[in-house]
Design goal:
Order of helices and strands: HEHHEEEEHHEHHEEEHEHEHH
Helix content: 55-70%
CATH class of the domain at 237-278 and 356-470: Mainly Alpha
CATH topology of the domain at 237-278 and 356-470: Outer membrane efflux proteins (OEP)
Low-confidence stretches: 1-19, 301-309, 311-321
Distance between the termini: 28 Å
Strand content: 5-15%
Number of helices: 11
Mean pLDDT: 86
Radius of gyration: 43 Å
Largest sheet: 4 strands, antiparallel
Length: 470
């Protein structure tokens, strides 16, 4: 029997492809999945985006500073910015400035925006925790499925060994004339059915391994085996009151905390919209200078040297002193120094009427707040329902396990009696096979009830914040 079991396990792991076998504990699986799961990695990117939005909301409260320069060529009739006079000839000019703006008051929108993005980032962090919790339960369930199918494989292997042994004993009895040929053929058919069941269990175990491998984002071709902890059903695992489990779960469950944070987000979103009704007070400051070809003057060594802003004035001055030099464009650096200016502005904007846009946005924000409150209550209700159902199912699974354990003990005694009776010729092949089938069903049912109870009881511990530990 041990040789047959070893052969079956060797077949399963050779199909998975193996060079160097790795044995993973449940904690190893959970650690790897939480680090490499694609959904979690996407969620972490959302957290990163929210963190940048929060940093930007802080930066929006700082003054804005910009530098700029503009060069132009004007043709035809235009006003020069430096001389502030009309010209018809081509004029080249340049302006440069440094400007700064600061919102002094905007209906508390800046601070509320910071609080909004803070709540948003926190909510996304809780969302990540919820995804991690769901992944933990999924992997734990897949891990237990492998353990279950390994035990089922043991049962199937044992059944095959019993069937082969009984078929051999029946052949001996047939050779001795104790049983009929029909009894021998029936035993061989039962042995063949058990071998087919063993093949199905091998396939189920292989598929269970593949499911866990995919959950862990591993290569399906790698040689992978899980560690087998001691798993047993213990009534002490149910020594917990569901009310206290729910009470604690409501405090630590990430999805509930995320929903609570989204209420705060909606509240701050409403405050932001209400702030649009307040006046906006802003401060503007600028410093800069200008250059223009139209800004001319006579050379400094001329006794009649005066600044000339217009060529017509320059012509008039030339008529007074025809022998004097013509006016020249003021040098670039001199103009930048002479045309230097500074500006400080204080502006206020009072919203009066904007087509009820602010009013509608406020109404929408109130709807979002009501929706977030309903979602929070709904999430609390769902969590409470999950915990109570898990507790109820665990109680039922425990009672089912106890019943099946009793049935299994009786089925084993019945099988032993049927086997002895068949060998002695007291009972028929049909009676023996019925006892053997009852034993197989009892073993399967007991295993199923035990693993169901273990998963449900560990799920309750998980919601209490104790982790999922086998």
């Amino acid at each position: 029997m041990k040789t047959l079991k070893f052969t079956a396990l060797l077949l399963i792991f050779s199909v998975l492809g193996a060079k160097a076998q790795e044995v993973w504990s449940l904690q190893d699986c959970l650690d790897h999945a939480l680090e490499n799961n694609l959904e979690i990695r996407q969620q972490l990117l959302e957290e990163s985006r929210a963190r940048h939005d929060l940093n930007q909301s802080y930066a929006n409260a700082l003054p804005a500073l910009n530098l700029g320069s503009q060069a132009s060529f004007n043709f035809g009739r235009s006003i020069d910015e430096v001389t502030n006079e009309f010209f018809t000839e081509r004029i080249a000019s340049q302006s440069m400035a440094a400007t700064s703006n600061l919102n002094l008051f905007a209906g508390f929108r800046n601070i509320n925006t910071i609080r909004y993005h803070t709540a948003h980032q926190t909510a996304l962090r809780y969302d990540t925790g919820h995804i991690e919790n769901m992944l933990t339960l999924t992997i734990a369930n897949a891990y237990l499925q492998i353990l279950y199918f390994e035990d089922m494989l043991d049962v199937a292997t044992e059944q095959v060994a019993l069937s082969r042994d009984q078929a051999e004993k029946t052949r001996i009895l047939f050779d001795g004339g104790t049983v009929s040929r029909g009894d021998l053929l029936e035993m061989k058919a039962i042995a063949a059915e058990d071998e087919a069941r063993l093949t199905r269990m091998e396939n189920n175990l292989r598929m269970a391994y593949l499911e866990l491998i995919y959950l862990l984002e591993l290569d399906p071709g790698m040689d992978f085996q899980i560690e087998r902890p001691a798993v047993a059903a213990d009534e002490q695992q149910l020594q917990m009151e569901p009310d206290r489990v729910v009470e604690k779960a409501l405090r630590i469950e990430p999805s509930v905390n995320a929903a609570r944070q989204r209420i705060e987000m909606a509240e701050k979103g409403l405050d932001i919209r209400k702030g649009e009704r307040y006046p906006t007070l802003s401060l503007h400051a600028a410093l800069g200078s200008r250059y223009s070809e139209a800004f001319k003057r006579f050379p400094e060594n001329n006794a009649h040297s005066i600044p000339i802003k217009n060529m017509a004035s320059a012509a008039g001055a030339g008529m007074l002193n025809n022998a004097g030099p013509l006016p020249e464009t003021v040098p670039y650096t001199d103009q930048l120094r002479e045309n230097y200016y500074r500006t400080v502005q204080l502006a206020i904007t009072i919203p009066v009427f904007n087509g009820w846009q602010s009013r509608n946005r406020i109404q929408h924000a109130r709807i979002d707040l009501d929706r977030s409150r309903i979602n929070y209550q709904q999430r609390k209700k769902e969590l409470s329902q999950i915990v109570y159902e898990a507790w109820s199912d665990a109680m039922g699974a425990w009672k089912n396990y106890q019943s099946n354990a009793t049935v299994l003990e009786a089925a084993r005694e019945s099988y032993q009696y049927a086997e002895e009776s068949f060998i002695l010729g007291i009972s028929s092949t049909i009676e023996y096979n019925e006892a053997k089938a009852r034993l197989n069903r009892a073993e399967v049912n007991a295993l199923q009830a035990m693993y169901e109870f273990v998963f449900l009881s560990k799920t309750l511990e998980f919601y209490k914040g104790e982790g999922f530990v086998l």
